[in-house]
Design goal:
Distance between the termini: 19 Å
Number of strands: 4
Radius of gyration: 14 Å
Helix content: 25-40%
Number of helices: 3
Oligomer: single chain
Largest sheet: 4 strands, antiparallel
Shape: elongated
Structural class: alpha+beta
Strand order of the largest sheet: 2-3-1-4
Order of helices and strands: HEHEEHE
């Protein structure tokens, strides 16, 4: 019964700072990544270093996704972003 899973997942997401119904993306790129993604005013932004690269988990309001996509495409061209993955399970 998925209802029990979704109810528990709802609580876990809230406790972790990932509001239910808000998309989360994992973005891999340069050290300046948290600063440039922060300019988009995400709901939450977690960053960690991975060798010479930075990994960010970015939570957005649903209405922010189009602007996020446009900015990420620019950042890919600039070489700031190397990879983007959607995190539907979060």
């Amino acid at each position: 019964d998925p209802w029990h899973f979704h109810r528990a997942e709802f609580r876990r997401r809230q406790q972790a700072g990932f509001p239910p119904g808000h998309p989360v993306f994992r973005v891999l790129g340069s050290a300046s990544l948290p600063e440039v993604l922060g300019e988009l005013s995400p709901v939450s932004l977690l960053a960690t270093a991975l060798g010479e690269e930075t990994v960010c988990l970015v939570t957005l309001r649903p209405e922010q996704v189009a602007a996020f996509r446009g900015r990420v495409l620019e950042l890919i061209e600039e070489g700031t972003v190397r990879r983007v993955e959607a995190e539907p399970q979060l």
